[in-house]
Specification:
By secondary structure, the chain is an all-alpha fold. The chain is 74% helix and 0% strand. The protein is elongated, with a radius of gyration of 19 Å.
Length: 174
């Protein structure tokens, strides 16, 4: 979507002007939170960490017998989620800033907030997978496509993205 936005920059800038011209607020106050929330919704669809523990299945005991602290072994399950999700969010943030002509003073806000959302989503997925693991499965597709932890993770992560949108607007108007 970021690449399409880049190619359709004029259309997107015109759309942003039309939307914000009817509002009593500046365009960047309106667009920055929406861009961040949309990035959060896209990131919410990535549920790597919400199936990470369940993928161990019947071999879960092996992870518990490793000669490292259990906390370190579990937190290592966050790394794939962050590696897969954070770089595309970073690139998309920069592309959206350029395409929508969001001022550079929002650069830190537009980069840090989606990355923090990515971390929160990874942690929530891991916690949900702790609560609702699916360790008895026939194939790995069941864990990824039919487990309660993946569904709940997606719903909660979308809620996190929308909550971030609400907090951003609340901070912008106060």
């Amino acid at each position: 979507i970021a690449i399409i936005t880049l190619f359709k920059q004029r259309d997107m800038a015109y759309l942003a002007d039309v939307i914000t011209s009817n509002l009593a607020i500046k365009g960047e106050y309106f667009l920055a939170p929406i861009v961040i929330a949309s990035l959060g919704v896209f990131a919410a669809m990535n549920t790597v960490s919400s199936a990470a523990l369940s993928m161990e299945g019947k071999r879960f005991w092996i992870m518990r017998t490793l000669p490292i602290p259990s906390r370190q072994a579990v937190l290592a399950k966050l790394v794939p989620h962050i590696v897969v999700t954070a770089p595309p969010i970073l690139v998309a943030s920069l592309v959206f800033m350029y395409a929508f002509s969001i001022p550079s003073e929002y650069l830190l806000f537009m980069i840090v907030t989606p990355q923090l959302m990515c971390l929160a989503m990874a942690l929530s997925g891991l916690c949900i997978n702790f609560l609702f693991p699916k360790l008895d499965y026939r194939n790995e597709a069941q864990v990824v496509k039919q487990s309660l932890s993946v569904f709940l993770s997606m719903v909660i992560n979308i809620f996190i993205a929308l909550l971030t949108l609400g907090i951003n607007y609340l901070c912008a108007f106060i």
